[in-house]
Amino acid sequence: MAYDPRYPGPRDSSILTLQEHHRSQTILDGGESRHLRLRRSDADFWRTEDIPDRVLDYLRYLGFYGVYRIGRIQMDVGLITAMLERWRPETHTFHLPFGEATISLQDVSILTGLPVDGDPVTGVDPTLSIPEWQALCLRLLGFEPDAHFFDHSRLRIECLDDRYRHFHIADDAPEEMVQQYVRGQVLRLLGGVLLPDTSSNKMKLMFLPLLEDLDFARRLSWGSAVLACLYRAMCRGSYADQSEIGGYLVLLQIWVWERMPTISPLRRQLLEMPSEQQDPDVPFRLDGPLGYRWNVAFNVHHVSTRVARVYRCQLDTLVDTSRRFLWKPYTDGILAILPQMCTVGHDIWTARVPLICFDVVEWHLPDRVLRQFGQTQDIPEQFDTSQGLHRIDRRGRARIDWRIRHAQYIDIWDARRDHIVHGDPILRGRSYTDDYMAWFFSITVRVIGQSQYAVSGYEGESSTVRLLTDSVSDLVLDTRRALSTTDEDERIQILREMERTGSGALEAIGVDPHTCAPWYGAVRAPDMSYTPSPYASHMPSPHIPHMSSFDAAQMPPPFHPQMAASSSSYIPQMPSPGTSWPHEYDTFFSGPSVYPDERVERVSQSVDDPTASVIPEQHDQQISSTDLEWRF
What we know:
Blueprint: H1 23-28, E1 37-38, H2 43-46, H3 53-62, H4 65-70, H5 77-84, E2 87-88, E3 93-96, E4 99-101, H6 105-112, H7 130-141, E5 150-151, E6 154-156, H8 157-164, H9 175-194, E7 202-204, H10 214-218, H11 222-237, E8 244-245, H12 249-259, E9 266-267, E10 298-299, H13 308-316, H14 332-337, E11 353-357, E12 360-364, H15 387-390, H16 402-405, H17 407-414, H18 434-443, H19 462-484, H20 488-508, H21 534-538, H22 561-566
Parallel strand pairs: 1-8
Antiparallel strand pairs: 2-3, 3-4, 5-6, 6-7, 9-10, 11-12
C-alpha cells in the first residue's frame, strides 16, 4: 500500500503486508471497527456444584486446576476489539505506539498455570460414525450421548452440561468412574473455555482420545496449544470482515489488565495478599495462578468499560512508562507467592518455536518482545509467520495424521531448548536501541483513532496525537539529515522542509505557525503564504474552525512572509521571556468573527492575557458545539 500522509504508517510496507485488509485500516479510512461477537460456552460449567476433591486432584495432576481457579470472568468486548485493532498476524504481536508486545509462553504459565513444557497436542483427526463416537463416549465418559447431540466429529456442549449439572461422585466411587468424570470436566474446559471455536456450542471430539490415558495427557503441552489457538483466533479476528472470534480471550483480557494499569479495573479484594488468618510462620502462597486474582469484584468508577473508541484512544496515547505500561509485571515478589505450576518450564519461555494444536501451527516470536524478558530490544530478524499456515484447517481433511503433516514443526518444538533467544541486558534504563525505534516507527501504524470523524459519543485526542507524533518524528529524522550533510544548500532546504512540517502541525492544532502562540478566541487566523505540511490539508483539526484567508500584509515585521522568503537565514524574532508581544500585534488577533450573526464580538487584546474570555457570557448558551470548539 502506498504511503498516504494522512495516515501514520506504515511508510515501509515490507512488514505489515496485510494492512489493506486489517481492522485498523477501516478506522483510518474513516469507518468504525464493529465489535466482535466473543464466542464461548462455559456458563453452565461454572454453575456446576462443588467438584469433589478427588476430581480436583486430577485437575492439578493434568495441569487444568489453574484455569478452574480463575473461574468465569466477564468479557469486555470493547477492550478485546481495541486490542485486535493492534494485533498483527504478520508478526504475532500487538503494535503499540512505542514497540511490539505479545502474549508469550511466560504469560500462559504465570497467568493460567497451564503446562507449557511437554509434547505437542496433536495426533490423528478421527472420523468415526455416530455409533462409534457413542461407544467411545460410553467407555471414556461413562455415558452414551443421544445421536442428535453429534455433528460429525463435534459434540454439543449442552450434552455434557446436562450430564454433569447435578451429577455427584460418591466418596467411595470406583477410580474408573472418577476418571470418567474427570475426562468429562476437562472436555468441557477445552471445548467451552480454552479452545472454543466460533460455533460457541460445540466441542471437537478429537481431544477425547488424548484423554484416554491420563498419564499421557499429563505430558502434553496444553498451554502452548491454547496459545496457538488464541494466536489463530486473533489473527483471524484482526481482519476487517470478521464478526466473531473464539479462543481463550480471558487470557488476552487478563494480560492487558496486568500490563496496563490505567486501563485495568480496580480490584476490591487483593487475593495476592495474606489474610489476617494467615499463619505468619508459613510462607504465603496464592491458591492458583496469577490470573486468579482477577476473579473478584471490581470498582469501575474510574475506568472505561465496553467502549472500543475509548480504549482505542487510550492505546493511541499509551506511553512507555511504568505507570502506563509494564514490560515486566511479574516481579520477584509476585513470583515468590505463585504455586509451582506457574514456573514449571520457565527455561523455554523465550523459545522461538511453532505452537501446535492439531491443524493449528502459529509461531512464538519472543525475539520481537525482548523487553518483556528484561532484555534490550533491537531490530528483530525478518520472519515470515507463514500466512499459508493460517489457511490450514480441518475442513476436508478427514483421518489426517497431523503428526505427519506438521512433522517439520514438531521437530522444531521437540528441540525447543535449542531455539532460546537471548538479548543484551538493559543498561542505564535504556530498553531499546535507536535503530530499533527508527525502524519500528517506519513499519508500523502507531496511532489508529480518527477523532475528527466522531459525530456522537466519546471523542478522543487520537488524531491530534497522531498528527504530532508523525510531525515530531519527521522533524527528528530531518534534523539528523541536516546534521549529517556537508552541503549548505541541502541543509537550508532541509530546514525549510522542517519549518513547513512544524508549521502545518501547529496550524492544525490551533497554534499560529508564525508567532508560535495559540489563536486566542474565536477569530479567523491569518493565512500566511507558506506551503503547509500535507497534514494541514488532509487533517482538519478537531478543535478549531476551518481557517480562511487574511491579508498577510497586515502582519508587521519581523513576521512578514516576504522577509522570510527573501532570506534563507531568516529567524523569527521572538519576545524575550517575561515580556509581552508588541501592541502592534493586537490587530493581528482581531478579525472577522467565525460565528454567524456576529454572536462573537470582535476581539482586540494582547496575547499576554490568554485568560481573558472572548465569548460574551450572555451568549454562551446560544453557541452550538459545532460553532465553538476552541475556547480559553
